[in-house]
Write a structure and sequence with these properties.
Elements lengths: L1 E5 L16 H7 L5 E6 L10 E4 L5 E5 L1 H12 L5 E8 L2 E7 L29
Antiparallel strand pairs: 1-4, 1-6, 2-3, 2-5, 3-4, 5-6
Length: 128
């Protein structure tokens, strides 16, 4: 299952051992397929089902979107083994891929990059 990670423009409330690294900066350091951790945050004033997403380095990159947090927090509370990996950085945040059966998540195939238009040619580089 692919999940959206949101709240990436907010500062981290609880600095980790590495200090207060901005979430977008940490997302830029993440690579597809690297493990991420999910932690419940029951004291979150906005959502008691909030789930923090932590990079492999233990730095918060955001939250699981509220629409999925209730389902995923229920899995975690009932002891279902959730494994998660970073999938991709997005303009609005990031995506992660999870499994609920203890297996390693498999990333979906990357989208093919668009070919340039057939009549388009880049300009030669001009010396300054």
């Amino acid at each position: 299952m692919t999940l959206a990670v949101v709240g990436v423009d907010h500062p981290n409330r609880r600095p980790r051992k590495q200090g207060s690294i901005p979430r977008r900066f940490e997302i830029a350091a993440c690579r597809p397929g690297e493990p991420v951790d999910l932690e419940l945050e029951p004291d979150n004033p906005a959502d008691p089902n909030a789930i923090i997403v932590l990079s492999e380095r233990g730095i918060q990159i955001g939250y699981v979107r509220a629409e999925r947090a209730q389902l995923i927090s229920g899995y975690i509370k009932s002891g279902i083994e959730i494994r998660a990996v970073f999938q991709s950085a997005e303009d609005w945040g990031a995506t992660i891929r999870i499994t609920t059966d203890g297996s390693v998540p498999v990333l979906p195939p990357m989208a093919a990059t668009a070919e340039p238009e057939p009549d388009w040619w880049p300009d030669d580089e001009w010396p300054d």
